[in-house]
Amino acid sequence: MTGNLIIISSPSGGGKGTLIKAVLKTLPKVGYSVSYTTRAMRGGETQGKDYFFVSPAEFETLIKQGEFLEYATVHDNFYGTSLNQVKKEIEAGHDIILEIDVQGAASVRTKIPEAVSVFILPPSFEVLAARLTARATEKKEELALRLKNSFGEVNRFSEFEYVVVNDAVEKATAHLQTIILAERLKRVRQSRVIQGILDSFDESKNQVNGE
Ligand code: 5GP
After folding, report:
1. Does the residue 203 lie in any domain?
2. Of the residues 66, 71, 111, 174, which has the maximum number of CB atoms within 10 A of its CB?
3. For ligand 1, what atom is nearest to the CA of residue 137?
4. pTM: predicted TM-score of the whole model, two decimal places
5. Which domain does 157 fall in, by range?
6. H helix or E strand, kind and range, residue 161
């Protein structure tokens, strides 16, 4: 059985990174799509783990080579999802989480309508601003740009199937896990397993009926 593609979006500072890390630690058979980006590496980030950090020229080459399932300009930098990585995980029967912005989410939904999409909302603008400021990973102008962009981003929540309000990390993590598990249990996603069970009933039917 192939895995599910789980799109997760939120404004910067919405806490999606923390929630995704918690889910990856606790749920089996869930992978994470490591994106390519042209933004500068932050302290504490690792090449190939958080992102593949590339130059704008390298990013352009990757676009030409058809490496991306989707890509977009977000907060003045390029970000893109590797098509190969996604394919590999899905075909191995693993779910894969795509932590991408609202533009990327829209283009993945167009290409793969069965993708599951989740929007993480902070409990308020004040909390979002406080989290971003406390994180202190951006310069003043970058932080201002991210806050400014958050207005347009939260307004696109209705494009998503699920919304998780991240007011408490443990609760929001549990909600995200629940979504991923419930999606696995959908009848259409279990057709092979179900068919095997039904076959066993068919095989035993004659015996039980004494035929
Ligand atoms: P950050 O610079 O804070 O890591 O990410 C900034 C924004 O870019 C976030 O909204 C994040 O979800 C988004 N992003 C990360 N990777 C991708 C990607 O591959 N494609 C798109 N469209 N957005 C991405």
Report:
1. no
2. 71
3. 3
4. 0.94
5. 5-198
6. none
